Amino acid sequence: MRTQVGIVGAGPAGLLLSHLLALRGIDSLVVEDRSRAYCEARQRAGLLEDGTVKLLREADLAQRLDAEGLEHGGIYLQFAGERHHLDFRDLTGGRTVTIYAQTEIVKDLITRRLADGGALEFEISGTAVAGLDTDRPVLSYTTAGGERREVVCDAIAGCDGFHGICRPSIPPGLLTVRDRDYPYAWLGITADVPPSTDELIYNRHPDGFALHTMRTPQVSRLYLQVPPDDRIEAWPDERIWAALQRRFALPGWELKEGPIFDKAITPMRSFVSSPMRYGRLFLAGDAAHIVPPTGAKGLNLAMADVSVLADALEALLRGDGRPADRYSDTCLRRVWRATHFSWWMTTMLHVTPAADPMTEELQLSQLRYVTSSRAAATSLAENYTGYPPLR
Ligand SMILES: Cc1cc2nc3c(=O)[nH]c(=O)nc-3n(C[C@H](O)[C@H](O)[C@H](O)COP(=O)(O)OP(=O)(O)OC[C@H]3O[C@@H](n4cnc5c(N)ncnc54)[C@H](O)[C@@H]3O)c2cc1C
Fold it and tell me: What spacing in Å lies between the alpha carbon of 286 and ligand 1's midpoint?
């Protein structure tokens, strides 16, 4: 079998890349080891930067996003019993972010690829890549029906997330990895209750960080800082709501409760592997880098990578390899900015276990600075809405 670009992984990176290539007249095949239903239901990110929304609009993918997405012009920062608002529109000359769940982006992309006749294979197994240092790399896999296939490609895109097979297929010794684990995790819930806030609340409390975000006007998403080795079974719904009530408490404001229909604990990690290319294999999204979710960057970085990659592959297939040669460096500049911002937000807002009192005072001083200095608030706002702007 033959395709121009073999894409491993039907997450946001792989699906968007396949669509962007189709707009450029380039064939691709996306292979995914999970089912379509699983990919469409996997609860993950939900906040799009200004430039990501513009990218989706340019790619004619924003009909439902424009109808159902919730545009936000700022966030709240809560600490030491006070809640402060940062007005992104004012601070950044009109830039905003949009709440639209990753589940909905994945549904929109799958629907569109299938409507356009795109090749997507779900529930495959035994994915392998070979010949990466030649100009005819081979993607092989076993279909859901049990048939083994070998697909000769011009290039392969490894969009298979942190635990995928593409990054480990690069020969040992060629990648530089920088990583950091954090001494806490996030317990995330999705609940059938209208959000109690108009914009996200990032909250530093002596018990630990908490975040109030949302998915739709009817569905709230909330997070609690928990120990990294905590188990979800230790958190019955009543305990979760009690902890959220304690951390968010503010006179005159009420946190509404409702039935929880999804809950999970996610570890926090910073990870960057470089370069993002080996021969004709190009890594994109979580396959190459992970950020802690505090800065809401993971999904946005994945989409930024593939917008650069689509142009680089178009040029490569025309015989011009220069944009492909620049691909890794171009992406890594944005990745490192987001990695720093995510680390900064994380360390400012979380309670470090067994930290000395000095650490707490430094965090509170930083929060007071960000909420009282226009220069400091502008720095947070421009990073949060996306820096450098993608569009
Ligand atoms: C639990 C969780 C919660 C998160 N919450 C947030 C958040 O609140 N905010 C935020 O900004 N980011 C969040 N993120 C990060 C964000 O969701 C990711 O950055 C985003 O999904 C990256 O997209 P991707 O396409 O690169 O990778 P993924 O979405 O991971 O997609 C990779 C795909 O490859 C498939 N795959 C893997 N191995 C193979 C194989 N061998 N063969 C075929 N297919 C394979 C996987 O099944 C998957 O569908 C979260 C991530 C996780 C894991």
Answer: 6
